[in-house]
Amino acid sequence: MSVAGQPWSFRTQIHSCADPVLRVAIVTEYDALPEMGHACGHCVSGSISVLAALALMECTYPICVDLIGTPDEELRGAKTYMVQNGVFDQYDFAIMIHLDNKNRSAVKTLCIMDLKVDFFGKSSHAASAPWEGRNALNGVQLFFHAVDMLRQHVTPDIMMHGIIQEGGTAANIVPKKRQHICILEVIS
After folding, report:
1. Backbone phi, then psi, for 119, in 5-degree steps?
2. Would you write out the chain's pLDDT as a tens digit for each of its 188 residues?
3. How far is CA 168 from CA 109, 117, 161, 172, 183, in A?
4. Of the N and C termini of the chain, which has fewer Cβ atoms inside 10 Å?
5. Distance (Å, whole) CA 139 – CA 145
6. CA-to-CA distance for 160 and 163, rounded, in angstroms?
7. pTM score > 0.85 for this model?
8. Quick one: how far is CA 48 from the chain centroid?
9. DSSP secondary structure string, 90-126?
10. 165-168, long-range: CB within 8 Å, 24+ apart, which pairs?
11. Nearest CA to 5 among 111, 100, 95, 80?
12. 163 — alpha (psi -120 to 50), left (phi > 0) or beta?
């Protein structure tokens, strides 16, 4: 069963007791990028989180431990939506394990904010009457160029990426709609 409407998410109770002094959430990430796979090791990080939760199954301390699966971290950041829907409100703290090339007591992480922008125009035949069309791709290109020019004016802890999700149906049709996704990542 999904959690807070997030596809492929889950929550399972690992350890419970009648009168807990502490409620703990162990978060596990397990997604991958299209065509690339597990770029930053979620396949291993997720497994380590599961193992940490399983190690607490036979715990004798008066705590409750839940394992919460948070998918789609690379594209949407499902934890954000889960937090907004109160999934973590009942816990005293939540912990997550993520791979790195060294042990650290303090880490810098990326915070993802996504922005979906739809550009609308009017389709027409590109050879017989292009003047009747309003090319939505022109708006997308202008937006991409503006974001690209902005990059030189932001600090190194900010990264901006984008893709075009919908690119039209045929080269000889002025496209009436283009979709662009802009991802803003901030190292915190």
Report:
1. -110, 130
2. 678 777 888 999 998 888 999 999 999 887 766 676 666 777 788 888 889 899 988 888 899 999 998 887 766 677 888 888 999 999 999 988 877 778 877 776 666 666 778 888 888 888 889 899 888 888 888 888 888 898 889 888 788 877 777 777 777 888 777 655 655 555 54
3. 36, 15, 21, 10, 22
4. N
5. 10
6. 11
7. no
8. 20
9. T-SEEEE----SS--SS---EEEEEEEEEEE-B-EET
10. 167/137, 168/137
11. 80
12. beta
Task: Kindly report the backbone phi and psi dihedral angles of residue 76, in degrees, each rounded to the nearest multiple of 5, phi listed first.
Answer: -120, -20
Q: Which two tokens stand for residue 131?
A: 């003047």
Query: What are the tokens at 27?
Result: 């978060």
* Other beta carbons within 10 Å of 25: 21
Measured distance CA(74)–CA(43) in Å, rounded: 12
Please give the Cα distance from 178 to 155 (Å, whole number): 29
Give the whole-angstrom CA distance, residue 134 versus residue 122. 5
Q: d(Cα 74, Cα 32) in Å, to the nearest integer?
A: 7
Residues 47, 151: Cα–Cα separation, whole Å: 36
Q: Return the HEC string of 136-155.
A: HHHHHHHHHHHHHHHHHHCC
The pair of three-digit structure tokens given for residue 10, joined into one six-digit string: 């889950």
Alpha-carbon distance 71 to 148, whole Å?
A: 29
Q: Distance between the two ends of the chain, CA-based, in angstroms?
A: 32
